[in-house]
From TrEMBL:
It is an enzyme of class 2 (transferase). The gene is uppS. Keywords: Magnesium, Metal-binding, Transferase. This is Isoprenyl transferase. Substrate binds at residues 25-29, 37, 41, 69-71, 73, 75, 192, 198-200. The lineage of its organism: Bacteria, Pseudomonadati, Pseudomonadota, Alphaproteobacteria, Rhodospirillales.
């Protein structure tokens, strides 16, 4: 049993804490066991459940998980198909439990590339949980920060072309409300697993002032104690937002 340290208790008293996670390392986890990469993806789903289960308890109000990137569509067909099967299974089996736990689910990303049955499951999950007031769980699927920004720019340009928006009125708020993350506060903390020190096109606009924590732990091994460790590291950071503290 992992104890919740005083540091984390103090975080829990904060009214808002958005943690974003790049869940990486499933393939390497499986390969190091002589198993196919897809075995790692299935095991990775258990880690998603563990993290979602303990998030609210640790004071996290918003959790955004990177499940599948725009660039991941260029992986082998068999791997994509298995990832979609896992996603389908997750949406069919886990949503009721999440709803009972008052979790509000939202999907970020490009739904046009997903199959109709998955889009329908996503819509149902969002509708069912829309009024829940507990953890906000955002799942980024077929998501890429550059695609998201490109879509936002197109939307804004159309509004300008239609005479509904003046170029001089374009500001941070207009851009925020044109992104998939409309209405979601920016992440405070971004965690990436698997030892890679990069962003891989995740939430490019939104992480402007997020604290970054990188861990060597492969995603299927990630659990509550790793999340606590990341939150402890976060609580020791001094966020200056360009200002001075001395
Ligand atoms: C993360 O694990 C899951 C997805 C990107 C879908 P990877 O599949 O990237 O695993 P590694 O990084 O190759 O080990
Ligand atoms: C980022 O991981 C995407 C997800 C975790 C869903 P990748 O494994 O695709 O990133 P790269 O290719 O190592 O940058
Ligand atoms: Mg990877």
């Amino acid at each position: 049993m992992v104890s919740v340290t005083p540091l984390i208790s103090s975080l829990s008293s904060a009214s808002l804490l958005h943690v974003a996670v790049i869940m990486d390392g499933n393939g390497r986890w499986a390969r190091s066991r002589g198993m196919p990469r897809t075995f790692g993806h299935r095991e990775g789903m258990k880690a998603v459940n563990r993290v979602v289960d303990c998030a609210s308890q640790l004071g996290i109000t918003h959790l955004t998980m990177f499940g599948f990137s725009s660039e991941n569509w260029s992986r082998p067909k068999e791997e994509i198909s298995e990832l979609m099967n896992i996603l389908r299974y997750y949406l069919q089996r886990e949503v009721i439990g999440l709803h009972k736990n008052n979790v509000c689910i939202r999907m970020l990303g490009d739904r046009d590339r997903m199959t109709a049955d998955i889009v329908s499951l996503i819509n149902k999950a969002e509708q069912l949980t829309a009024r829940n007031t507990g953890l906000s769980l955002n799942i980024a699927l077929s998501y890429g920060g550059r695609c998201e920004i490109t879509k936002a720019v197109r939307r804004i340009a159309n509004a300008v072309a239609d005479g509904k928006l003046s170029p001089s009125a374009i500001d941070n708020d207009i851009i925020n409300s044109s992104l998939d993350t409309k209405g979601i506060p920016d992440p405070d903390l971004l965690i990436r697993t698997s030892g890679e020190h990069r962003i891989s096109n995740f939430l490019l606009w939104q992480i402007a002032y997020a604290e970054l924590v990188f861990t060597d732990v492969l995603w299927p091994d990630f659990g509550k104690r790793h999340l606590i460790k990341a939150l402890e590291e976060f609580s020791r950071r001094c966020r200056r937002y360009g200002q001075t503290t001395t």
